[in-house]
Amino acid sequence: MDAALELMDTAHVVELGAREGLLGLPRTVDTLIRVNLIGLLELAGIGEIEVGAFALPRGLHPAINPVPLLDTLGKPPVDNVRSVLLPHLNTLDAAFASGCQDITVSTTASQMHCRASLGCNIEESLRRIEEICIHAQPLGIRVRARISAVVDCPFSGAVTPAQVAVIVARLQQIGCRQICLDDTTGTGTPSTVGTLLRACLTEAPMHRLACHFHDTFGLGLANVVEALEQGVRTFDSSISGLGGNPYLPDAAGNLATEELVHLLTQLGIESGVDMEGLILAGDYIDCMLERRTESRVGRALRARKAQQRTRQ
After folding, report:
1. With a threshold of 0.90, does the pTM exceed it?
2. In angstroms, rounded to a whole number, what is the distance separating the alpha carbons of residues 256 and 295?
3. Cα–Cα distance measured from residue 257 to residue 15, given in angstroms and rounded to the nearest whole number
4. pLDDT, position 56
5. HSE-up of 110 (CA within 13 Å, CB side)?
């Protein structure tokens, strides 16, 4: 491991549990539950949360409709970010009217995945993003971009780093504040992630890049370590491992925030997140959803606390 990681450093956690983590659940999650979850996450020190998404033309799962949520939440705490996923320019006005100052836009590195998930080709998705950015800037709205399927496409197979780097260059030129690389299928390894990041670094500075790993094959944390060594300091994660993998329904999904924060702490990298507060947020949403946490760190810390109580 790079010796630099042993020195005090900082990293930024972007929480997706309140949006992506609740997508595809068999039942709608009440707005009050989502408000409480976001409040607990912010109390734990999470400074950036993706809270919902505005509708795609073919409709939106009701569990992530952001309008009633944003109305109930009101203004975020100072220096906190609450973003929404925005698919088209025609939803920008709705986002602005709801008080959004940060939005996320999405494209993908695979043509087949782009058509399946966004209903267009990559060039059209980039044109939409550019259009959104042009109109968002005068409104004071900041734009974060996500590129899906950066390692592997569930329909067409391996994606080359060169394919991703071309898109990174375009998003950098468009003016997105950050570009997140999303290993959608969770098939990335430290080797493929390292190669990908070195290719992308030729098109954008590392502080503009973020990573989004799924723990589908148990390599989420290993990929985080590799990204850290390459210089990445922003990572997406999901409280309690909320959110599965739509391409492998019975497999693990998003990297749990508890796992990410625990790793950063062990490496001496400051995230500003309080683990006890994070466990409380995970307990809350797991109780509300009647599920068992997917976080191994969460389970271990709960077991340790239970053991300590029995010894008292």
Report:
1. yes
2. 6
3. 7
4. 55
5. 22
